[in-house]
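Encode chain A's predicted structure.
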Amino acid sequence: MKFKNLFNFLKINRENHLGIDFSGSHLRLLEIRKDKKDFDIKAWSERKIPKGILEQRRIVKQEEFIDFFKEAIENSEGSFSERNVVLTIPEEKIFTRVITIPKVENKKSLEEIIRWEAEASMPVAISEIYYDWEIIKEDKEKTNVLIMATNREIVDNYLEVFNELNLNVLALEPESLSMARSLNLLGTEDYNLIIDLGDNSSNFIICKKGLPIFTSSSSISSKTITNTIVRVKGVSFEKAERYKIKVGLEESQLKNSKNKTLFDSFLTSLVDEISKMKEFLNYNLFLDEKNKKINKIILSGCGSNLKGLDSYLTIKLRQPVSQSNPWLNFNFNKNIPPISKQKSQGFAPVVGLTLKIKANEKTINLLPKERRDVIKIDNFNRFVMKINFIIGSALIVLLTFLGAMLFILNIYHKINDEAIQRDTGGKLSAVISQAKKEIDQQHIQIDKTLKHFENRKPYWNYLDKINATLPEKVYLKKVEINEEKIFIQGIADNRDDLLSFETALKKQDYFKNIEMPISNLTSQENVNFEIIVNLNKE
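Encoded structure for chain A:
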């Protein structure tokens, strides 16, 4: 539970989050902020990933990646400030399964059944993966569950690198799920098909309720289109890219017989892949449903910038096909987005990542379960402390107001008392004197209450000092404070990190004695711990 100061700590729904996507050939970063009800872009960056840094989607040259990442942050449009981040997992590293199980009311039993099914259906041992699940559909008898998983090796690799960057990873999400969110498909009952035409490969994603229930990869890619133009037209790669975007499949160009065949191979392969996805939906998914059909086909990725592709497919497939708009959730006040339409096609996954936290939704998160649990507890603690802070502040304001009113009433009675004594010769002075005593008692009670809240103010200082000493790989589950001690519970990645935390606490002047049971040190890794911190009141 790392926070810079009290105000950051109280932000249970953090206003900014940094989305990071390097699932393709580019690193894309996006930080958004919420202005009232609308989202706005705070900062963004896009840089081509140098060859050799990634291998089979793993970061194999970590130091070079860290330097490259820092350059992307420094050479950005706008200024990045957030250290809480969400990452995509490349789709080719995701295992997706839809299972049907008997309806189970008990959540623990449901989790055990899903674990058993995951173990039986995944192509690798369950000990080698991190997985998460989401219910797609349920009725009185059965439940359809989406399970998504990825290799532990990939997740651990990413977490190691981003820990070195001092960034707090809140979620790891399949690329397809992020894309569906950015295109406003979450919650829709229809079947939709997203075609992500990337630089080097393509992903075909069938979604139901915005959840990717089946994905398929293909060698069709944006680079395939551009290389074809280079070969046939005899132009440079850069000119071929411009030709693809500005001319493409325009009807006027298709009158030329040479241009008619320019994209034939690509278009034939693309239509074949779409037909296979439709066939798979009809004969392999949700067999109890009849007449299943794709409602929307959405083109995304840089390959979707081939001019006229959406119109061609609409005619060929006899159903609407459109290019994606990742900015559906944004209001730019009738201005164009700061990222061009062509570049935006590659930003769909990273846009979806940032919207995940904004929606505060429970969807697939491929972080290790222990780390997800810590984040949940962290959010709950933030919520509780925020409520306490709001209630305490409201009471202080209320009591201050009452104190002011009583002060005014006291002055009023004093003036009125003098006037009455002049008029009555002091006959009512005894009654007024009693009223004054009652007012004085109220003043004393208010002073005591305000003093109580004043004495609580250092608690925030104590929390801030604990935060300042907290190593990156130590996470707090629970913090309780009374007038004498602070009780801390948490989990550390390893014993050395916990010992570093203890040493740092001992160096703080605010604390005079740190009590840590020897039982905290019996485990080498994933250490659950309890610490008692005695407060220095001097």
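Confidence is low (pLDDT under 50) at residues 1-14.
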